[in-house]
Specification:
The protein is built from 21 helices and 18 strands. By secondary structure, it is of the alpha/beta class. The protein has a five-stranded parallel β-sheet.
């Protein structure tokens, strides 16, 4: 007799149903797991064997075959320990056959206790879509699984003895309560901590209001990193769908806190400049998400931009345009969401002191040009705003009156985003994501604006992409001021942020 136990698996960040088919037959005792299992799945045989004996059950002395279907999909990880355990004892007659609408997943210890696993949220959502109404999984993963929504009952299981008693009807388990978000934790870094740099704060506000990419260029110690880390404090909060989507990615990567499985804020990722292209895009043997996907619906901050490897930087180009990344490896092809806001920081030259009022730059013009050229033209063309970050003056450092706080700026950003939500009919829509057709529809220019745009296009040698990006930024500036039309003043401010200013080497 074949006992089938429903379970779940992961393909990238998407869950799918897996069925563990357990069959006992005569012959020499053996225990085989088939269905393209990896080493961790094959090792489940020993964990299950020990768990069965330590919970007081009798391990069947027969030929055991477990097939994980669909057999053509690779199975990875330790999540199949529990369904194999249930199927094995049910086939041996020590447990009743599991309910047809129930699914099991979890890693077993040798004592029979269940250990937490990764990727529970996307698997729980897939279970709900597959018609599964009962989900049994480790106790620490139960709060995360309840985020899948109504229609599925989640049972947190401490050990296999408690699960066996539940299936036999001896001691029913209590369903896990629906997890509710708590108060937000530590406050985010505030813009009021930044002394001076009003022009950069303005650019940061525009970037937040329209979801635009930002590049800051300045000498060491001018506050580039400090400013970038305060961007999340003025961004609008995540919507429920955005939070679920981002939390699913973090769950697969094993970065969520079991006590707080839902991300309450937009993610901020700042990989080191030694990160490889694979670390940014994702991949590996198990095809896991990279930094771009971990920053989905949030901010990806690249400090010391020219120090990143060229192939790593060029890997940014497709996600910046499409909002997703395609990872092709020997283990398969994976499509991952990667709609992030890119914020970069760099020095004006290798020594860092080009244009500084008191420090002398030791780089030649040729060395400065070579340093700047590490950023390719196509990547630079995808930066909506480029702003120079001057060194902070002494008077600004000693100023006792704090600057504008993040809450005040965030209210203006929220008002601009509300205008965009009405414009695009979606709370997730923002100006940075406008298609060329939408640019033509929502960014009309009056006669003065047309003349200014034509002059800039000819004089600065703009590409079609740069033309549209300038209009998107101008649209955001107008939204911040609550204006229906883009005025020449809005357009002029957007033009001054164009990336062409980066090519100017500055004074020594």
């Amino acid at each position: 007799m074949v006992i089938t136990v429903r379970s779940l698996g992961l393909s990238g960040i998407t869950g799918y149903e897996v069925r563990a088919e357990c069959f006992l037959s005569g012959g020499l005792p053996s225990f085989d797991v088939v269905g393209l299992p990896d080493a961790a799945v094959r090792e489940a045989r020993e964990r299950v064997r020990a768990a069965v004996k330590n919970c007081g059950a009798r391990f069947p002395v027969s030929r055991i075959t477990v097939n994980l279907a669909p057999a053509g999909e690779k199975k990875a990880g330790t999540i199949y320990d529990l369904p194999i355990f249930v199927g094995l004892l049910a086939a041996a007659g020590d447990l009743p056959a599991p309910p047809p609408d129930a699914a099991f997943l979890g890693e077993l210890s040798l004592t029979g206790a269940l250990r937490g696993i990764q990727g529970v949220l996307p698997m729980a959502r897939a279970a709900r879509a597959a018609g599964i109404r009962q989900l049994f999984l480790p106790l620490e993963n139960a709060p995360e699984a309840t985020l899948a929504g109504e229609g599925i009952t989640v049972y947190g299981v401490a050990d296999v003895s408690a699960l066996a008693a539940h299936l036999r009807g001896q001691a029913p388990l209590t369903p896990a309560p629906q997890w509710r978000p708590e108060e937000e934790g530590e406050p985010l870094p505030d813009l009021r901590d930044v002394m001076g740099q009003e022009n950069v704060k303005r650019a940061l506000e525009i970037a937040a209001a329209g979801g635009h990419n930002l590049l800051m260029v300045g000498s060491p110690g001018s506050g580039k990193s400090m400013l970038a880390r305060r961007l999340p404090s003025i961004l609008p909060p995540l919507t429920w769908e955005e939070s679920l989507e981002t939390s699913s990615i973090w769950s697969v990567a094993g970065l969520t806190d079991p006590r707080r499985p839902l991300l309450p804020r937009r993610p901020f990722r700042g990989p080191h400049h030694t990160a490889s292209a694979a670390a940014l895009t994702g991949g590996g043997a198990a095809l896991r998400p990279g930094e771009m996907s971990l920053a989905h619906n949030g901010v990806l901050f690249l400090d010391e931009l020219p120090e990143f490897r060229r192939d790593a930087l060029e890997a940014l180009r497709q996600p910046l345009e499409e909002g997703s990344v395609t990872v092709a490896r020997a283990g398969g092809t994976l499509h991952l969401p990667a709609r992030f806001q890119l914020v970069c920081a760099m020095n004006p030259c290798r020594c860092g002191w080009r244009g500084h009022p008191t420090r002398r730059c030791t780089c030649s013009d040729r060395e400065v040009e070579k340093y700047v050229q590490k950023i390719s033209g196509p990547l630079l063309d995808r930066m909506d705003l480029v702003v120079q970050v001057p060194s902070v003056e002494y008077e600004a450092m000693r100023r006792r009156t704090p600057g504008e706080d993040s809450a005040t700026v965030a209210r203006r950003v929220a008002s601009a985003r509300a205008i965009q939500a009405r414009r695009f009919g979606s709370a997730q829509g923002c100006n940075a994501h406008m298609s060329p057709g939408e640019v033509g529809r929502f960014c009309p220019l009056n006669q003065g604006g047309e003349a200014l745009m034509k002059s800039a296009f000819t004089r600065m040698g703009l590409s079609a992409r740069s033309h549209d990006r300038i209009l998107r930024v101008a649209r955001t500036i107008a939204d911040l001021e609550g204006e229906e039309d883009i005025s020449p003043a809005h357009l002029a401010e957007a033009i001054q942020y164009h990336s062409g200013t980066l090519t100017a080497p500055g004074s020594r």
